[in-house]
Amino acid sequence: MKPLRLAAGLGVLVLWGCATVAPSTQPRLFLVPAFLSTDASAPPAPPFLEAAARVLSASGRYTLRQKGWFESGFDEAVARFDYPRTALFGDDQRTAANQVLQVKAFGLTDLVADRVGRAWRVHFRIVDAATGAVVETFSMVLPWRSRESDLGNAVSALGRAQAREPPDPEPRLDRSGAWEAWWALAPKLTGEAPRWRALLEEARSAGDFDEALRLADLILGPLVGQGRWVRDTLIREAGWAREDGDFRALMLALIPAPGPGVPESLAADQFLDLARQTLLTSPAARRPEVEAAFRHRFGVELAVALTRPTLVPVDGGSFVMGSEDGEADERPTHRVTVRSFLMGTTEITQEQYQTVQGTNPSLFTRGAGSSRQPVERVTWFDAVEFCVRLSLQQGLEPVYTVSQRRPASGYPIVSAEVTVDPTKNGYRLPTEAEWEWAARGGKLGRGTLLAGGSDPALVAWTDGTSGPQPVATKAPNELGLFDMSGNVWEWCWDWYGKYPSEAQTDPRGPGLGILKVGRGGSWHAAAWNARTTARSFDNPGSRGGNIGFRVARSLNPATEN
Question: How would you classify the pairing of strands 105-114 and 119-128?
Answer without folding.
Answer: antiparallel
